[in-house]
Amino acid sequence: MGSIARVATTTFFAVLFYPFFAVTNGQNDNSTRLWQGYVTDTHCGTNCQVTKDMTPDKKCVVRCVRKGSKYGLWVGDRVYVLEPQTTAARFAAKNVRVKGELQDETIRISAIEEIDKTASPLRQSLAW
Q1: Domains defined along the chain, listed by start
Q2: Is the per-residue pLDDT at 82 higher than 80?
Q3: S-S: 69 plus which of 33, 35, 64, 123, CB 3.0-4.6 Å?
């Protein structure tokens, strides 16, 4: 994929999914937050190969992790490392809601669930 197509794809994702990202839960203390995004890998991040549905390609994510990358959560234009990796692995290339604590650039998962692709953004933010 050319660099212009890559930039266009990244911009498309940022604009299309911006309202879905970085949902915070004001009922929790300052250290525990709620994020929503796609589980990808830290090597490709937001530039991972995508499917026809414009979501991360699971084969690409798994291949990069096998080569030493880590599972991460793609939120907006950032990718946060997810820990524990064994928990994140079950959700490779899935749209998820993650509850956890942010430490540096790593989200320590306390809960994670796949989000129904047909759920509306409002329903998603209120469901947890």
Answers
A1: 3-117 (2.40.50)
A2: yes
A3: 64
